[in-house]
Fold these 2 entries.
Entry 1:
Amino acid sequence: MEAVGQLAATMAHDFNNILASVVGYMYLMRRKVDDPALLALSDKALSVVDRGRRLTSRVLAFARSDDLVTAAVDVRALLHGMEDWLRQTVGGAVTLTVAADEGVDLVATTDASQLELAILNLVINARDAINGTGSIGLHAGVQRRETADGDLPAGDYVVVSVKDSGSGMTPDVVARAFDPFFTTKPVGQGTGLGLAQVGNVARLSRGAARINTVEGEGTTVSIWLAWG
Ligand SMILES: Nc1ncnc2c1ncn2[C@@H]1O[C@H](COP(=O)(O)OP(=O)(O)OP(=O)(O)O)[C@@H](O)[C@H]1O
Ligand SMILES: [Mg+2]
């Protein structure tokens, strides 16, 4: 996976530079054109290039999640620090609540920027799942696992969860949700890298990510990070 990640990062980086040159030449060309039909076509071309640049930046962010720069992170502070930004992301019609357990250190050894990106990815998924109206609840707390659960060893964890009142997922979708490039969204709207990034961050923080979902009722995705 690491080699694939590096290859993807190199390709995405070079590809981004290629797209940047295309944009540059297109703007030069537009200066010499005053035919509205040609300008409209070049608008279309520019917006497609823009989609390409967004895709490559997603691939880059995903590739970087394979190589975390870890430090002790105060997850409560991180979550509260994101609140305004998340509210803007989901829009006014959505109720977004953020809560963190008090009286306990919510500290995990992880990569703060990658954890922020993971939380943002979960909130964007929740927003898409509720399709305009509904609620999204973020919570952070400490949980103890007395026994191992698959790839999650017994121990203490800081658990960040994002719960939505959205569409939920079918068992088929749950089974593939963490796979890189798996998406059910239309072309141009999803790259299928959001949950793959979430899974990487959790795994490399000595934890795992979990999905609890009920079709038609909603979904909770949790990031388990080894405590301390
Ligand atoms: N909260 C959710 N509710 C319902 N389905 C979800 C939720 N989160 C993820 N999914 C499903 O899992 C799929 C994969 O999610 P993931 O975040 O990896 O990719 P994406 O959202 O499709 O694209 P990207 O995040 O790269 O823009 C989604 O396409 C969707 O079908
Ligand atoms: Mg997503």
Entry 2:
Amino acid sequence: MSSISKSVLSRTSAKVDKELRASHAGETGAVWIYRGALTAEFLVSLVSFSRSPHKNNKALSVKAFASEHLQTEKTHLSIFENEMPTFRGSYMLLLWMIAGFLTGFIPRILGHNWFFYTIYCVEYFVDQHYEAQCCLLENVDPLPSEVLRKFRQCQQDEQSHRDEAYQAMTSTPSFTMKLWGKIVGKGSAAAVAVAKLI
Ligand SMILES: [Fe+2]
Ligand SMILES: [Fe+2]
């Protein structure tokens, strides 16, 4: 192989490596979002049970939603860890775990609609990010087999999560919730930019 084609290949690999690292960091964060939400759900259920044992219907639906989504996010994480070409993981995984945990924990403490709206905002961002990545990967040659198909597979699940979260809301988001949603979106974009590098 000539030195020119070797350097083209390494640039291509670097491009794929960055995208795999960013999405692996994102899926790690996603797992921890639901762990944070389930932790908050448990704490809230302890308080609401002691106040009124009949007020747990909605809390159960958050628990079911978060538990089901947690399983899907674990599957996504496993795809990146076991089924993708080898890549360098982010050096900041601990930070993505903590950020994810708080992104699930804080809104769940604030209420059901806060939680569902946050998930809607996160998944809205993730869907757009996967779309941008897929457009980029479509032009990578040679692209390791199956990479694009697996990105699309994860994207479809995120779209369902986004729509389920939106449908689970029982009222329109307040001004403060929208402000929080914008912070979550900007924070996610910043996290992707950092994870691509570090
Ligand atoms: Fe995911
Ligand atoms: Fe998701």
